[in-house]
Q: What sequence folds into this?
């Protein structure tokens, strides 16, 4: 008993797309806050903070997302007895993932600000907090926007992995549709197209922003 | 298995990417457009979905692959998408003055690439390629979803029979991390031996 | 009482002794020009005075109190010491006016309206009132440097430090900056300048300090030192500056 792939099935996919977007946005915002803290820790004068932040980034970037997801969903339950539902587990895992990557991107942006800006601000004098708020972060923010947008694309693609633990986002919806319609030739490429539709505009935006920033900084790049 | 897949995909992917990068910078217009479309599609769709298309969708039109082969093909194609961009950036980073010097020496296009472009381009993109390789290795865990017996798949099977999920996952994570670190270190040493001739350390490594 | 008293300053960078037993006093209103070859330690000396570099030995006493090493105490002292850098270091994302009012509003807690009035005043001192809403990228090097001077003056310092502020400028832009310096000097500001502008040093400085290999090699009124250098090093330095192609 199989159904044909028709409008209703397509609408199901679209519905699941909502969850992909929701998960990506939550992780992006949560990870954004975390990432800012991590970036500040990573560039602070306190060696302990720097080390901890670096270790966190290193671990998150040195291990597969899937593993991080398994740890959050299956592993955490066994360790602490707290069984997370798919939704919180997935949100937690991707938020931490985003925090690490965004933290690293923003650390790079902060590092890109020349030492002399720090000195001029400190000599004015401005307190370290004021230096960050008025001089360093506004400039770092501008530099950080293109790679941050680029990471959003990475995040959206990354959420597809949540399908493996059964969380119903777009990829899982695709699997379900294939199980029902037995038409993988239509469903999976369609799922790919839907991701493409979500991601490609972002990629283009990131590229355009990067060119604008390079022009403003007077760097010539090949197109 | 993880390593074998990763290395295999890396080599194959790099070969494909080299051709594509060359086509992208030096080929006729339609070819260039095709390469761009290929690269953009790969970079804007998830690896898992690409795998599903290769392993599940293609059989519907008669092309059937064994899981491991499908994984290898998937990883190769995925890697080639990113590698093409990386190589292209490296090729375009070769200073114009070098190319002009080649012209004035009467090099053909092929000679140009061999003598002037390839080596500096490789040196420039080496760090980016290493990072991409690490990502490839970590991404290999996803092929467990089509039941390939690599690290993640094995761990999954083990933990479900012993109910000691956290320890197993923790160990697996540590193994991946160790692989990533060791690989990075080894390739860094390789870089030093091959490319550095008394030059100061490249900024990309000063992490 | 001298405004600034340096005694026995010693500083190393790794194995290299950059400042070797440097002593100097600066009276209020005095204009000191520090000259010397690159590597003689003159920029490092300047940066030690406002704490951008830490000294290994010796003492720095400003307005009767020793210079704090770091923290809020150092910030307090920095309010009275202005510095202008060779590469201007303006904040590129702020307008000229905001560059100038940032210090007063954030650190001195001056209300916005008053800060704007201060900005008007210092911009007039550097001949740039009409540029208050421009951004640094729109200005020439000489204009940017004058804005940097205005930014430092807005904090009402008692001492101004200048680190080769004309060295990065195209020759035709140097004059406008030197004019501002001379005006500042005649208004009674205490100034220490690391400079290559020998004309300015000869005309306007009260004291010339010639540094060589991290030491104060010669010190005295510029006219005397230029006319009759006591050491071989100063003599050859002067000759190299005045007749560079010999």
A:
């Amino acid at each position: 008993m199989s159904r044909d792939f028709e409008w209703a099935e397509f609408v199901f996919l679209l519905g699941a797309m909502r969850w992909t977007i929701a998960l990506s946005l939550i992780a992006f915002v949560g990870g954004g806050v975390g990432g800012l803290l991590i970036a500040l820790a990573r560039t602070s004068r306190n060696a302990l903070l720097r080390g901890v932040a670096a270790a966190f980034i290193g671990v998150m970037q040195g291990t597969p997302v899937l593993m991080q997801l398994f740890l959050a969903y299956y592993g955490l339950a066994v360790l602490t007895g707290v069984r997370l539902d798919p939704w919180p587990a997935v949100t937690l895992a991707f938020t931490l993932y985003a925090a690490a990557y965004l933290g690293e991107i923003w650390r790079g942006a902060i590092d890109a600000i020349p030492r002399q800006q720090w000195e001029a601000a400190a000599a004015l004098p401005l307190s370290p907090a004021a230096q960050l708020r008025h001089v360093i972060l506004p400039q770092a923010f501008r530099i950080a926007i293109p790679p941050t947008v680029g990471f959003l694309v990475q995040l959206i693609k990354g959420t597809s992995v949540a399908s493996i633990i059964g969380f119903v986002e777009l990829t899982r919806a695709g699997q379900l549709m294939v199980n029902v319609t037995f038409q993988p030739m239509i469903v999976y490429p369609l799922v790919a197209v839907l991701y493409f539709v979500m991601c490609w505009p972002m990629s283009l935006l990131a590229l355009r922003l990067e060119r604008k920033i390079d022009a403003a900084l007077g760097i010539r790049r090949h197109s | 298995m993880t390593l074998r897949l990763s290395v295999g995909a890396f080599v194959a992917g790099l070969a494909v990417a080299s051709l594509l990068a060359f086509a992208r910078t030096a080929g006729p217009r339609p070819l260039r457009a095709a390469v761009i479309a290929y690269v953009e599609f790969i970079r804007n769709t998830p690896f898992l979905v690409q795998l599903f298309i290769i392993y599940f969708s293609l059989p519907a039109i008669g092309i059937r692959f064994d899981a491991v082969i499908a994984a290898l093909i998937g990883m190769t194609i995925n890697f080639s998408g990113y590698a093409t961009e990386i190589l292209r950036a490296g090729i375009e980073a070769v200073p114009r003055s070098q190319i002009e010097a080649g012209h004035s020496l009467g090099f053909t296009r092929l000679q140009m690439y061999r003598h002037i472009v390839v080596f500096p381009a490789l040196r420039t993109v080496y760090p980016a390629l290493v990072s991409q390789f690490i990502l490839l290795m970590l991404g290999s865990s996803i092929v467990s979803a089509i039941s390939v017996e690599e690290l993640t798949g094995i761990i999954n099977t083990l933990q479900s029979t012993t109910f000691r999920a956290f320890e197993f996952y923790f160990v697996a994570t540590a193994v991946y991390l160790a692989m990533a670190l060791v690989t990075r270190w080894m390739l860094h040493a390789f870089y030093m031996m091959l490319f550095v001739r008394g030059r100061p350390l490249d900024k990309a490594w000063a992490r | 009482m001298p405004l600034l008293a340096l005694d026995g300053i010693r500083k190393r960078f790794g194995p290299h002794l950059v400042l070797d037993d440097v002593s100097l006093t600066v009276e209020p209103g005095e204009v000191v020009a520090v000259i010397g070859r690159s590597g003689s330690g003159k920029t490092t000396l300047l940066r030690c005075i406002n704490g951008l570099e830490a000294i290994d030995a010796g003492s720095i006493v400003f307005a009767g109190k020793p210079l704090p090493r770091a923290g809020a105490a150092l910030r307090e002292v920095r309010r009275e010491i202005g510095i202008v850098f060779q590469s201007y270091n303006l904040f590129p994302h702020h307008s000229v006016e905001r560059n100038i009012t940032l210090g007063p509003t954030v650190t001195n807690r001056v209300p916005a309206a008053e800060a704007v009035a201060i900005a008007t005043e210092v911009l007039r001192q550097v001949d740039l009132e009409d540029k208050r809403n421009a951004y640094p990228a729109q200005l020439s090097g000489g204009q940017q440097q004058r804005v940097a001077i205005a930014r430092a003056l807005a904090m009402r310092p008692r001492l101004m430090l200048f680190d080769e502020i004309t060295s990065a400028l195209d020759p035709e832009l140097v004059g406008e900056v030197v004019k501002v310096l001379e005006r500042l000097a005649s208004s009674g500001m205490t100034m220490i300048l690391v400079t290559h502008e020998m004309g300015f040093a000869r005309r306007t400085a009260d004291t010339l300090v010639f540094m060589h290999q991290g030491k104060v090699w010669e010190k005295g009124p510029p006219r005397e030192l230029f006319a009759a250098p006591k050491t071989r090093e100063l003599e050859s330095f002067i000759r190299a500056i005045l007749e560079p192609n010999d």
